[in-house]
Amino acid sequence: MPEQALRPVRGGQRVTVRVPATSANLGPGYDSLGLALALYDTVTVETADDRVLEFELSGEGADSLPRDESHLVVRTLDAALARLGYARSGLRLTAENVSPHGRGLGSSASATAAAVLAAAALVEPEDRPDRAWALQLCSEIEGHPDNVAPAIFGSLALSWQDGDSFRSVSAEVVEDIVPVVAIPDYELSTELARSLLPSSVPHHAAAANSGRAALLVHALTRDPSLLLPATEDYLHQSYRSSAMAPSAELIERLRAEGHAAVVSGAGPTVLVLAAGEGEAEEVVASVERFVHGVQDAEQGRESVTDWRVLRLAVDREGARVELYPR
Ligand SMILES: Nc1ncnc2c1ncn2[C@@H]1O[C@H](COP(=O)(O)OP(=O)(O)O)[C@@H](O)[C@H]1O
Ligand SMILES: N[C@@H](CCOP(=O)(O)O)C(=O)O
């Protein structure tokens, strides 16, 4: 069968996608639960009729990301357009990157979602797919749906896979939950963190994990007083802790104080789900005490971990797409 010719993307269009950062797993929700955070990357794609390829990158990765076809957003945009039966000509990409890279806050998922949603907006109106299509393609690219689903839909995403098909539903998180993140200055690639996991786990661990994952949905949507037991994980954190010792230590400290601290995504960022502003303040103070204590103890060693602590909000909207001209 001859390959179908790809339709050209019209030049002179501009699409802006604002996409939230995400925290996946949330303890026991490995590869299935994810929360959208009010920390946004903004990607603007302008199409042109000539062969131009220009980049204006600022923020995270501005000095290190490639400025050619291998850039994740360009690569993904091209793949998404091809899946829709289109090909672009020229492109100007403006990216204001806020989410830190390789820290477990879903930066690659945000970039992937931005590119796929931009592609979906740039094709002719009769060919524009819905967000379920975007979830499917983004999950195939990422290999797991737990970051891309909340990046696209916002709030708490509960995702699953049926054969080759990725699905997700959104749940509303109770108002008073405040996500606090402690971001260390070292990176850990998701690929490396996934390679540390065993191919199977004991049945009792799987059973315990199911109970906690179910409880977590209840705690996040109804009763935050259960967040500490609900965020206990049996599938991934212990296997990865050697690759993020300072984060594992901080989590142990915060949990001993009664705070629902977990590894954000594949790490090394620590996420705490605080039940209200009062607890969020306590968490920030506790992280600061830990950081200064650890830094004192580390003086004289080669590396001292630096941490950035952010008190965030849950994003309830998901990715926002604006197309000009409509
Ligand atoms: N906004 C972006 N633009 C281009 N590439 C990106 C962007 N965000 C992330 N990436 C790529 O993804 C990598 C990080 O992905 P990953 O290891 O999955 O960590 P994270 O937890 O941040 O998603 C970066 O090193 C970079 O190569
Ligand atoms: N379920 C995945 C989540 C990876 O999230 P990231 O933000 O670290 O990319 C995993 O635990 O590997």
- Average pLDDT level: 95
The fraction of residues in strands falls at 25-35%
Outline the biggest β-sheet. Answer: 7 strands, mixed
Shape: globular
CATH class category name of the largest domain: Alpha Beta
Which molecules are bound besides the chains?
Answer: adenosine-5'-diphosphate, the ligand N[C@@H](CCOP(=O)(O)O)C(=O)O
Note the gap between the termini: 36 Å
The ordered H/E elements are EEEEHEEHHHEEEHHHHHEEHEE
Spans of at least 5 consecutive residues whose pLDDT stays below 50 are none
How many helices? The count is 10
By secondary-structure content and strand pairing, the structural class works out as alpha+beta
Q: Specify Rg, calculated over alpha carbons.
A: 20 Å
State the domain count. 2
Task: Give an overview of the whole structure.
Its main location: cytoplasm. Keywords: Amino-acid biosynthesis, ATP-binding, Cytoplasm, Kinase, Nucleotide-binding, Threonine biosynthesis, Transferase. ATP binds at residues 100-110. With 326 residues, the protein is of the alpha+beta class. It folds into 2 domains: 7-172 and 315-324, Ribosomal Protein S5, domain 2 (2-Layer Sandwich), CATH 3.30.230; 177-311, Alpha-Beta Plaits (2-Layer Sandwich). It is 35% helix and 28% strand. It is built from 10 helices and 13 strands. It has helices at 72-83, 107-122, 131-142, 148-153, 190-195, 203-221, 227-230, 237-240, 245-256, 277-298, and strands spanning 7-8, 14-25, 29-48, 53-59, 86-87, 90-97, 156-162, 165-171, 177-184, 261-263, 270-275, 307-311, 320-324. Strands 2, 3, 4, 6, 7, 8 and 13 form a 7-stranded mixed β-sheet that branches. The radius of gyration is 20 Å and the shape is globular. The two termini are 36 Å apart. The model has no long low-confidence stretch (mean pLDDT 95). Residues 24-25, 30-31, 104-106, 108, 144, 146-147, 190, 193-194, 236, 265-266 line the site of the ligand N[C@@H](CCOP(=O)(O)O)C(=O)O.
